[in-house]
Write a structure and sequence with these properties.
There is one protein chain. By secondary structure, this protein is an alpha/beta fold. It folds into 2 domains: about 240 residues, Alpha/Beta hydrolase fold, catalytic domain (Rossmann fold, 3-Layer(aba) Sandwich), CATH 3.40.50.1820; about 120 residues, no CATH class. It is built from 16 helices and 13 strands. Strands 1-2-3-5-4-6-7-10-11 form a 9-stranded mixed sheet, with helices on both faces. Strand 1 and strand 2 form a beta hairpin. The longest helix has 17 residues. One of its GO terms (biological process) is proteolysis. This is Alpha/beta fold hydrolase. InterPro entries: AB_hydrolase_1 (IPR000073), AB_hydrolase_fold (IPR029058), Peptidase_S33 (IPR002410), Serine_prot/Carboxylest_S33 (IPR051601). Belongs to the peptidase S33 family. It comes from Pseudoduganella flava.
Length: about 475
Amino acid sequence: MRFRFFIAVSLLLAARVAVAAPPGRSCHLPGAEEALRCVTVQVPLDYAHPGKSIAIHATVAAAYREAARPDPLFVLAGGPGQAGSDILPIVQAAFRRVRATRDIVLIDQRGTGLSGKLDCKTPPDIDTMTEEQADAYTLRCLKALDAPYVHYTTDAAARDIERVRQALGYRQINLWGGSYGTRLAQHYARLYPANVRALILDGVAAPDQVIAAGGADAQAALDATLRRCEQAPACARTFPALRTEFAALAAKLAQGPVTVTMADPRTAALRPVTISLRRFVATVHRSLYAQADAHTLPFLIHSAYNGRWEPFVAQSNRDTDFSTDGAMSGPLYLAVVCAEDYPKLSPQLAADDARGSFLGSALVTQLGTLCPVINAKPVNYTAAAPITAPVLLLSGAQDPVTPPRRAEAAARLMKAPRHLVVKNGGHIVSTLGCVPRLMREFLDQPGGKLAAACLDEIPAPTFQLDSAGPQP
């Protein structure tokens, strides 16, 4: 099932211990050409009452050099619902320089990937379902899974990381967290401060951030994209009434879904496709995550306004079916959000957040339907002592879910924070421009200076004006 609540490496690289190779077995996983090391660690399902255990999967990409540093980089994926084994390409894209001297370790959080994934498959007729039918399908799946959702929390996941660290024989570790992974990394650092050498947090979730209340940040990112189009002569000339067209589409869909007949992208057979307001805003929101996708929105919106929905539906399908994010565990997302975020979502906060945002209240309404089935106990993590380890915080100025203000809030609970902002970056910037080099330099000398002026050289993508794709 598509758990796109409008929300936001692959390898557990471990520094070598006293053996020739990291523990575990040789394995080949999708997204990586080379042989890696796969490790399985048994952990308690319930840390308060140990008894039944579950298996946690970790992937280790060993350092390139024989004389590897003893402190690996543990990589924590986002969501919640992503697994480390789902995002292996990031090892090469973001951590190639780090891997020269350090193992990279990716953990599949309990309930994701190869750690007993809680999964609801997307039904084949999802495109023709009403929202009510889709939610009913999800409810049936959640009940059929009958999982002990109460044990799938951030706290339990952090304790799992500690068991993996012990199993691999590391003393101190470095942590990279992306999106929700930043919440998990911060929680681990507070539970086990002596075991953390340094942290890199990309797309930082502040401790007081409520995942379900993202309307204001999303609207700010959309406004920035539309403003950039208005300031780019070619985009402004091609789409002179973009804001009016977007508002008209949203108003039309608020009256009821639109059904269009188009060729199935997999079979080429003509079929009806239903575009609801929820699907529309979810696709727009997810497109804002990456700047390359955000710069296609003017073309997608204008095409849909003129009755040509095919490009918009193709973007929606790519986002949910064919991207790495398509492997996200929806039930794990719910287990975390329904226990840790939804209880904090007061009616006043929900109303204030939805006011003036294109996201509206669809997410809150959906969670109100699904969270009772999870039956998770509300979790209130109190802010502990400030994180003492050095922290590099990374933000994209155009991020629709964790913009720089979230990192600034998190930094107030850190003793040695350093915040870098990529002005032309969206959600997760570790793969962009000189950021991989800066991460390596930070890990080598957490207290040293970083020549970060290169971040301003990262260009903004060009806008897509027609079906030929982005401008040259």
